[in-house]
Amino acid sequence: MGLFDAIKGILNPEIISTYEEIINSHSEAFRRWKGRQIVGTFSSTYNFSPSYNDKYYIATHKSEILKVEKEIAEEKAFERRKQEVINAASKYPHAFYALVKRLGLSFIPGITVTLPGERKSKYAKKQAEQAHQQKTNPNKSVRFVLDYIDIDSINRLGSFINTSSPYSGKKVERSIKTLDKEEYEKLYLYLYELADEERKIEASLKKEDTVIKFEDEILCDKKRSTYYKKFVDFKLVTTNVEEYCVTHLSQLDDFINDIIHSEYKRITMEYPLGAKYFEDGHRYSKIPKEENVVNNEMRIISLDNACKKYDELKKKYPIGVPALEKYYSYDDGKNSVDLSIEEVVEREEEIKKFQIYAREAAFYANWEQTQIDFNSKCRKLKDSVLSEWGCYKYNIPFQKVKENGEEIKGELTVWQMFYSSFSEDESVDTSYYPKKGENRKLASQLLNNEVRYKSHIYDKIVNYIEELRKTYKNEDEIYVKFACTGLENRKEVIEYQFKYLKTELDKRGIKHSLVQKSPIFIEDQVRYVIIDLVTTNEQLRENISMLLDAKRYCRKYCSKEIRFNCFSDIVYITVLKGLDKQEMITLNKAKEHEIKMKAEEKRKQEEEEIRKEKERQQEEQRKQNEILSLRSCVSSWDTLFLTLPYNYLLPYYPTSCDFEANNEEWNNRWLVWNFKNTPGKTNSLQHEQALSNLIPRLTRLLQDTFGLDLSKLTLVCIPAASRINNDARYRDFSERLVRITGMENAFGHIQIIEDAVPKHLGGTGIPVLQFDESFFKDKYVILFDDIITKGNSMLRFKNKLESCGATVIAGVSIGKTHHER
Question: Which residue of 40, 176, 549, 666 has the smallest Cβ count within 10 Å?
């Protein structure tokens, strides 16, 4: 500060005093006021040495600074009130939330509690939903949405999105700390009420908790809701019933179980039949047995009465009741349906009918089954006794009775066995079966007794009947019926044609008689063998129907108990069977199909033969081409006897030569001798050195000669004189050579059966060999020997292998014997 400013300060002490008061006593207000002044108001040295003018300006604006101080005081007071509001929201959450709603303020995120009346128990929701459904039937999907969308939540979300901070033009997240001033002031005015209001709300919520728990734990539970009033009466509880129940649930459950148990014992004693029937029908119910019985007492009383009536009906109609139940039952293995006991007792009139007709219906059902069993035996016997005979089966209609007395159509399937057959219809072509056309004349001759079959035909029939009798304990069960329907001279024909057969039957005690329309009596339980000379299909059905009608007529007036087991199974034997038009057409179609299939099979066979021949020729041509290709590889080689190309690695001069061998020739001799690996003459190291020398050289020779075709060849080493020498010489050698070259190894496919006997001991010097001929078929062979002298061994092996189906391409060796240089 300069001298001039100091003088001004001395002359104006009130200015300096006011300035210092402001700086020292109102510093916070001064700083805010100063920050509002425009740039340049104060001197540039103000911050470290204010001028008199700076002090004067500040002192003369004391009133403004004091106003700012008042603003600050008001702001601090508001901040205290705001903090009290924030603290109250945390301390009295329920009362504060209620106050926000009462003042109509927008939703404040984070200030969310449940007030009394806002919660609903499951019971209350269910009651409301049922009431709503009684008034209207809204779309199911709409109900689902309304159940799960909270409209208040949507409104709160909207308030959150559209609320701006009072301190910024930007939208900020609304919270208890970001309300505007007006909202804080409104809330502050009522803070004194919150403590008392919070206590009231908490008390209401606690009471509401009890009510909700009562509704959810008691009223929503069918068992508890039924018995809780009896429980509180038993406990003499008159006030706070809900609270008592929810705090004594285990005692309530024990009380209920005791009541249910005593009620169960009473019901089962008073209505034992109904209770048992009910329990049997609810064996897999999820509801406990005793509770289920007690809950359904009226149903059990009704069932008890029905059970008593059912027992009376069973005694009165012992056959009718089970027959009716079986008639109306259904079970396919997956689903089943039965009449209830109440439905049964309401059908007494129907049961009466079942009592009358049930056994009759069972008779016909059993008859059909016994006929099926009889058919099986007859058909099986036909294959063993009448193997050359024909057979057809026919469904014969007959009347039968259902359990309720209703007459319905049934069918018995009957087998017909026949020795020969003819075509009934002359218009049908019999060119495929000329005998069936010719037999029409035979049928006429037989019926006129002009000719008859020889006895051996009837011997077959007798044998069949005898075998059939053996399958039944009572031999009298088989009964023969002779039929020649529609003939005026019927008896004469039967006597003439079946004289021999009847005699044979009599010898064996086999009963027989004629098929008649109105017999005086009908046999009880028998198996009929109907024997006919010439039969058309119409006559077959007529004869069988006559027996069935006779059986029905006899049973109608029969009072014997056996009538319910009086089955009459039937098999039909015809010497000459008539084939109707449809059967002949079927036979012709079958024959045409057979001819067509044979022709098709023949065509396929011919095509297959042509295809195989073509493949054979192609394969043969391929082999010839391969042989030519392989032989062309060795066309430059020398030949043995002008037939077998051969090559070798080195000249071999035997010790018998009349000149002195040089070092190279001695090395070659030792190489050959070491390769031979003769036991006692060569050690393993020398043999290994020989192989290491020779195998690479042989590999180069063969690869250079055959190239990629080398893998097509099979290596055959010409065996040594003995098994021991052969194994020592060729096993390891052959395995290593084929591994490198890709050739196939034949070493294991030639066995030495007997070692060679040397020539000087009187032998041939050649071992006895055994060849795996199947292995050598179609093989391309390269022969190998250690030394070629004249080539006899290779030529002999070539001939042998080619006799086994192989093709010998060439021979190779280590050396070729030379006697001159």
Answer: 40
